[in-house]
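Today's session is about reading a structure prediction critically. Students often jump straight to the picture, but the first step is always the sequence itself: look for stretches that repeat, for charged clusters, for runs of hydrophobic residues. Only then move on to the predicted structure, which in these notes is written as discrete structure tokens rather than atom positions. Here is the chain we will use throughout the hour.
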Amino acid sequence: MKLLFVNACIRGEQSRTLELCRDYLNKFKEAKKDEDWVIEELDLGHMDIKPLDAQSLAQRDAYMKAGRIDAPMLSLARQIIGADQILIGASYWDLSFPAKLKIYLEQCSVTGLTFIYSPEGIPQGQCHAKHLTYITTSGSAIGEFNFGYDYVKGICSLFGIGKTFFVSAEELDIIGKDVPAIMARAKDKITGIIKEI
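Below is the predicted structure for this chain, in token form.
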């Protein structure tokens, strides 16, 4: 079985979001130590992925029309379909997440592969994963402007991923806030998620 970790923590090892993701992965490995799990990490900050343009979109459409789902440009879509659990770590940037994550999800969103349409025009997701966990951190409060997680939750519905979990550590840059306590509460929530899945 496979856990896919989509690492959109662009600041790398300095990222507090990445700290929470590592906590999640360590707890997951401990909880599943008697099972056969492989963890695959995609470090989006070091991947050369680009937004679709007219040329690449036409190429993708041609591959799908020809049944060439083994084409290299469809590899990210095939990978997310095959994952049994998914973890996304993305810092809270500009009310959502880093642009690399949007590009990644665009590359994964392929009609006829990650989702199909029924004869009635209803989308039917093709991903195997039952759960996706989304982890983020922010310097201020997120509040109602949780557009990053809301978008990912919508994509999960399209892809057929039945349940999503959200973990955030917020207000980390506000003077006077107890940052270690905020991070500890987020890690406690991670512990609860691991127990549930």
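Discussion point for the tutorial: The mean pLDDT is 97.
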